[in-house]
Amino acid sequence: MQTVAYKNKSFYKAALCLIALCLICLGMNRPISAENKIDRGSEIERSDGGYYTVIDEKSKVLLQTAHTISAGDEYIAADNSRYRITRIKGDVAYAKLVGKEAEAKLAANPKPTLIQTLMGSKNGGRKMIALYHTHSDESYVPTDGSASIYANGGIFKVGGVFTTRLQSLGLDVDHSRRPHDPHDANAYVRSRRTAVQLLQKQPMALIDVHRDAVPPNVYSTKVQGRPITRVKIVVGRSNPRSSANLQFAKQIKAALDRTHPDVLEGILLTRGNFNQDLSPRALLVEVGAHTNSRYAAQRGIALFAEALPKVLGVTGVSPRVPVPKSNRGDWAALVWGVLIVGGAIAGYLLINSGGWRGAWEQIRGFFRGEFLDINRRRGNR
Q: What is the bridge-based pairing of β-strands 226-229 and 220-223?
C-alpha cells in the first residue's frame, strides 16, 4: 500500500507540473503589463510654449513637435525616409538619414489569440476600435477659444468625428470621454486605468487621440481644395511592444499613401511608453496643433479613419463579424505545448521509476487506484 501511495504521489506531482506549465502558457497570451518602472518623464510635453525643430544633415527641416525629444529617437517621413536623432542643442535636434523604409504589407483579418479562439471574444466577434484621450484638456484656439479647456477639451469632438467615421466604415467604436486632468506628468498614469478597462472588451486597436503644440503650417494642408490638418503617429520606443506598434503604424501609413498621401505627417518614435505596452496595436495620434482650426482637424481625422478598415481586414458596413472557429497557428502551438509538457512528464516519471516499465506501472497504478476508489465510493452509497 505504501508503494502504491508513493507512486500515486509521484504521479500527482507530475500532473501538478503539467497544470502549472499550462497556466504559464495561457499567461503568455495575456497582454504585457509594465506598470513598474515606466519612464514617465520622457512622456511630458513641453509646457514653456516652445517646440523642437528636427533638421537633417543638410539643415532641412524634417519635423517640429512639442513632444520631448531625445538622442536615439527616430522619425519616418512622408517619403518613408528614416532618420535618427543624434544630438540636441537648445530647441534644435540634429538627425541623420539611416535608410529607406519598405512599404508595409496590409494584414487581412488579424489572427485572434489562442485564448480568444478557445473561449470566444468578449466583444461578440465585433471589429472594434477603442479611443480615449490622455490629455483631455487639449483644444484648438481658432475654434475653441483656448488651447486648454479643463476636462472638456475640443479634442473630444475630434474623437467624436473619428468615431462616427469609423462606424460608417463598418467598425464598432468604444470612445471613452473620461477626463484625465490635470495635464501633467501623471496624466498617463491616470489614463492607463482607462486603457486597461477598454482592453477588457478586446478591441482590435487602442488609439490615444491628441493634438500637438506647434505653428499652424506644420500640420495644415488641403485635400481636394478643403483645408485639413495632417496626422502624426507617435510610437513609444521604450515599451516591449514597440516593434508591433510600429508595424501597425507603418501599415496605416501604407494604406493612407495609396488613397490620401497628404494626410499622414509622419511616424515619430520617441522615448516613452504612452501605455502602448498594453496592446500590440496601441498608438498615439496627433491631430493638428492648438493653432489649427478644429474643423480642419476633424476633416483630417475622418480621412485618417479610412485606413483602419483596410489594415484590420474590415470590408463594408458589418457591425458584427463572426469569430473565427479555429486558428491553425494557435492550434499548432497548443499541440506542440502538449507534446513538450507530455515529454517533460514522461522524463520525470522515467527518472523517478528507473525505467520505462516502472513509469508505465506508475501510470497504471494511478488509474487503477483512482477507479477502485470510485467504485468503492459507489458501493458505500
A: antiparallel
CB 288 within 8 A of CB 297: yes
pTM over 0.85: no
- Separation of alpha carbons 362 and 356, rounded Å: 10
- The answer to whether residue 371 sits within a structural domain is no
Whether residue 134 lies inside any domain: the answer is yes
d(CA 218, CA 194): 30
Separation CA 45–CA 51 (nearest Å): 9
User: Which residue's entry shows cell 488651447?
Assistant: 147
d(CA 203, CA 126): 8
Please state, as a whole number, how many other Cβ atoms lie within 10 Å of the Cβ of residue 52. Answer: 20
- What's the domain range around 243? 13-348
In whole angstroms, give the CA distance from residue 236 to residue 38.
Answer: 11
For residues 44 and 360, the model is more confident at 44
Number of domains in the chain: 1
Residues in contact with 142: Cβ distance below 8 Å, sequence separation at least 6, in sequence order: 291, 292, 293, 294
The reply to whether 64 falls in a domain is: yes
